UniProtKB/TrEMBL annotation, chain A:
Belongs to the ABC transporter superfamily. Keywords: Amino-acid transport, ATP-binding, Cell membrane, Membrane, Nucleotide-binding, Transport. One of its GO terms (cellular component) is plasma membrane. It comes from the Bacteria. It comes from Streptomyces filipinensis. GO terms for molecular function: ATP binding; ATP hydrolysis activity; ATPase-coupled polar amino acid-transporter activity. It catalyses: a polar amino acid(out) + ATP + H2O = a polar amino acid(in) + ADP + phosphate + H(+). This is ABC-type polar-amino-acid transporter. It is an enzyme of class 7 (translocase). Its EC number is 7.4.2.1. Its main location: membrane.
Automatic annotation (TrEMBL), chain B:
This is Amino acid ABC transporter permease. GO terms for biological process: amino acid transport. InterPro entries: AA_ABC_transptr_permease_3TM, ArtM/GltK/GlnP/TcyL/YhdX-like, MetI-like, MetI-like_sf. It is a multi-pass membrane protein. One of its GO terms (molecular function) is transmembrane transporter activity. Belongs to the binding-protein-dependent transport system permease family. HisMQ subfamily. Gene3D superfamilies: MetI-like. Residues 70-265 form the ABC transmembrane type-1 domain. It comes from Streptomyces filipinensis. It is found in: Cell membrane.
Length: 264, 277
């Protein structure tokens, strides 16, 4: 690991009385791919959203590329240009065509001229395999195509880090593969990635590290073979067994007192 | 047990439910037909035509009713709409501001101007303000006055419409824009407002229809012959001719504008419905 690209220190986040993050320490090196897994309500999405300050941490520090985001004087808009974010619900701009989705942020935020923005948009659409959809509108695309456009939109800004918030959770199962293929491509190109996901196969094959979270804490952190293949903690084993074979789960009392901010 | 049985089971005697429904519907039709007949018989058709539809008087209204009255109605309405839209936008953004006093001020404005009759505001703008502040000059004379009065009235309604439109845009849109590095203001202008206006186009057009009718209140501002709009024009000519035909023609001129607008709104609404799916 070279210098850490993302560094999270003693991060706490509460929504009212709900203490969602209870002291997270995490470092992600340059070019590293880290998958964050855990049961719903464990705080993994909140952690990811704290990394680009979509959620304001209650306590603790977040550094990206050496800049402290939690510093009140930091130009958060400038820092966010270096951090790409991909959402579960895609969040494409529905009133803009696919190409405009990619060019408008470049022109308005990065002040690129028309030609440069259009060229970079075309390049990135080609990267995600959707060059022929350049003039389509988001509503005419499948979920998988929309998510790939969303990835291309983030890439067009030239980010140093990419955050993925359950990028395949809203997709029909047969569309998941295309999105994961694009993410795999990014990983091999050396992009620093933090991925909140339930895709264990992806985590196992692509991630350099897997972080298991539960109850607002990091329970286990290690290589995919360690965390997924040979989990040390009972909670990790329990979670994985339910995830890998949901049909075998038994009805049981709620063990966690955590009330998660339920994902839609 | 016995209770529920008798309620669900068809009654042995009297009418069945189906017969009752048919009877009730028949009665409604019969009432309608009776009312139409009663009106046709009692109305004095010759007198009605004489009072409301004299071709000779109708002819004399043209072309002034179009070139002066309708033109002025459209001008008053549009200028009021533009002022109302700009002011309404500012108030809507104030209502959503993170600065408490702005939210409070916008709320007070909306409550006051939605609660007052439009007529009162016209009198206030037309008479009250010039008396209280003699140095105040409305740009464009009467047109400026009307634009301000109609703008003040409609801004309150439009502010609430625009606020609802902004809030109807999913949260994720602002989050996506912010995560791409948009500042809050730029995200609002480039991403949120274009979507909000698509959502509120039908209610805004409805507001335009309402303004068309409210423009008749210009009557109370004191206008010259050349500044008359449809209602004043119709009223004046009805007095001079001692006949109601000008009123009817002026009314038709309003409908000429408002009915097509309403149809446009309905089409936009059904299109929006289809897009949401």
């Amino acid at each position: 690991m070279t210098r850490p690209e993302i560094r999270v220190q003693d991060l706490h986040k509460s929504f009212g009385d709900n203490h969602v993050l209870r002291g997270i320490d995490l470092e992600i090196g340059q070019g590293e791919v880290v998958c964050v897994i855990g049961p719903s309500g464990s705080g993994k999405s909140t952690l990811l959203r704290c990394v680009n300050l979509l959620e304001e941490p209650t306590w603790g520090q977040v550094f990206v590329g050496g800049t402290e985001l939690t510093d009140p004087d930091v130009d958060i808009d400038a820092v966010r240009r270096r951090i790409g974010m991909v959402f579960q619900q895609f969040n494409l701009f529905p009133h803009l065509s696919v190409t405009e989705n990619l060019t408008l942020p470049q022109r308005r935020v990065l002040k690129r001229d028309k030609e440069t923005a259009a060229r970079i948009a075309a390049e990135n659409l080609a990267r995600v395999g959707l060059a022929e959809k350049a003039d389509a509108y988001p509503s005419s695309l499948s979920g998988g195509q929309q998510q790939r456009v969303a990835i291309a939109r983030a890439l067009a800004m030239g980010p140093e880090v990419m955050l993925f918030d359950e990028p395949t959770s809203a997709l029909d199962p047969e569309l998941v593969g295309d999105v994961l293929a694009v993410m795999r491509m990014l990983a091999t190109e050396g992009m620093t990635m933090m991925v909140v996901t339930h895709e264990m196969t992806f985590a196992r094959e692509v991630a350099d590290r897997v972080v298991f979270m539960d109850g607002g804490l990091i329970v286990e952190d290690g290589s995919p073979d360690q965390v997924i293949g040979d989990p040390q903690h009972e909670r990790t084993r329990h979670f994985l067994s339910r995830l890998l074979d949901p049909a075998m789960a038994q009805v049981e009392e709620e063990t966690s007192d955590q009330v998660g901010r339920g994902q839609p | 047990m016995a209770d529920t049985d008798t309620r669900i089971q068809p009654r042995k005697s009297g009418l069945t439910l189906r017969q009752k429904r048919r009877l009730s519907r028949g009665a409604q039709y019969a009432l309608f037909v009776a009312a139409v007949i009663a009106f046709a018989v009692t109305a004095d058709w010759g007198r009605l035509q004489n009072q409301f539809a004299q071709p000779g008087i109708a002819q004399r209204l043209f072309p002034a009713i179009i070139t002066v009255a309708l033109k002025n109605t459209v001008l008053y309405t549009l200028s009021g709409f533009v002022v109302g839209l700009v002011l309404g936008m500012v108030i809507a953004l104030m209502r959503l501001s993170s600065v408490g006093p702005y939210r409070w001020l916008a709320g007070v404005y909306i409550e006051i101007f939605r609660g007052l009759p439009a007529l009162l505001i016209f009198i206030f703008v037309g008479t009250g303000v010039p008396l209280a502040f003699p140095s105040v000059q409305y740009p464009g004379g009467i047109y400026g006055k009307v634009a301000v009065a109609l703008g003040l009235v409609s801004a309150a309604y439009m502010a609430e419409t625009i606020r609802a439109g902004i809030q109807a845009v999913p949260r994720g849109q602002m989050e996506a824009a912010r995560s791409l590095g948009f500042s809050p203001a730029r995200a609002m202008v480039s991403i949120i407002l274009p979507q909000a206006f698509r959502i509120i186009l039908p209610p805004l057009t409805n507001e335009l229809v309402l303004l068309f009718k409210d423009s008749s209140l210009v009557l109370f501002l004191g206008v010259t012959l050349e500044q008359r709009e449809l209602s004043k024009f119709g009223n004046d000519l009805a007095s001079t001719t001692a006949n109601s035909t000008p009123i009817l023609v002026a009314g038709l001129c309003y409908l000429l504008i408002t009915i097509p607008l309403s149809l446009v709104v309905r089409r936009m609404e059904s299109k929006a419905q289809r897009e949401i799916r």
